[in-house]
Write a structure and sequence with these properties.
With about 250 residues, the chain is of the alpha+beta class. It contains six helices and 14 strands. The strands form three sheets. Strands 2-3-1-9-8-10 form a six-stranded antiparallel β-sheet, covered by helices on one side.
């Protein structure tokens, strides 16, 4: 799976940017989507207009960590993996028996956006299993990204030459757009357009960037670690209806 978000939608953390990164413009003329399609000829690409692009392929799948894609009410979601507590989450979100993992993630986001106030970290923490997902809400131009606590699904992120955010399960595809300015997506973390990167396992702690060095000794993005010394101010998500949209407040 692949997602490239314009920096106006999802700003890449500055720590991902490496000197002499050799990055390209991932969105210009559909560059990275075309690279993805050349590796996955049967892939499907969804143009998000000025917000970016997402693409996915069902070939070369790990049967234990399948890829899923869905669109509900202009919310696009790519999901890879397996949720263990599906039945519990279906009940929690009032979903029917046919709902699968990607539908559960979309409904969890809608609950955050429309019916809070729930802490976003709690909503992601409720999802038990092996997973990584990328969600885009075209109504609010908001991205929501997360990975499980153990990093069971290969998942990478980086920044291209224009500061756009690139996410994919294939490190080689990320390298094409980001050069050395990429890293594995942090385990047990989630990223939102307006809230940036946070740990849902340790929601009250800040994250600190640790420069990443590859096997040849070159700077290669950064890993983000929970800073046990630094506490974060707690913040809930405002209820939509009285105030404004979650995505612009969180």
């Amino acid at each position: 799976m692949l997602a490239v978000f314009n920096k106006s939608v999802a700003k890449s953390p500055e720590a991902l940017q490496s000197p002499q990164s050799g990055s390209a413009s991932a969105l210009k003329d559909g560059f990275l989507a075309r690279q993805f399609a050349s590796v996955h000829p049967s892939s499907v690409t969804v143009n998000l207009g000025s917000s970016g692009v997402i693409a996915y392929s069902l070939d070369k799948q790990n049967p234990l960590l399948p890829r899923l894609f869905a669109v509900v009410d202009d919310i696009f979601c790519l999901f890879q993996g397996h949720i263990e507590n599906v039945a519990l989450l279906k009940q929690q979100y009032g979903l029917n028996k046919t709902a699968n993992e990607v539908i559960i993630v979309i409904e969890a986001f809608r609950t955050l956006r429309d019916r809070g106030p729930y802490p976003a970290d709690q909503v992601v923490r409720d999802i038990q299993g092996k997973f990584a997902f990328v969600l885009f809400d075209s109504a609010s131009k908001a991205a929501f990204v997360a990975a499980d606590p153990d990093g069971n699904v290969p998942f990478f992120w980086g920044t291209d030459s224009e500061g756009h955010l690139v996410l994919a399960d294939d490190s080689e595809v990320v390298k094409k757009g980001c050069g050395n300015s990429f890293a594995p997506f942090p385990k047990g973390c989630f990223f939102t357009s307006s809230g940036g990167l946070r740990s849902y396992e340790h929601p009250h702690n800040e994250l600190k960037a640790v420069p990443r060095v590859d096997s040849s000794g070159e700077m290669c993005g950064a890993n983000f670690k929970v800073d046990a010394e630094t506490k974060k101010e707690s913040s809930g998500i405002p209820r939509v209806g009285s105030a404004a949209n979650w995505s612009t407040n969180y």
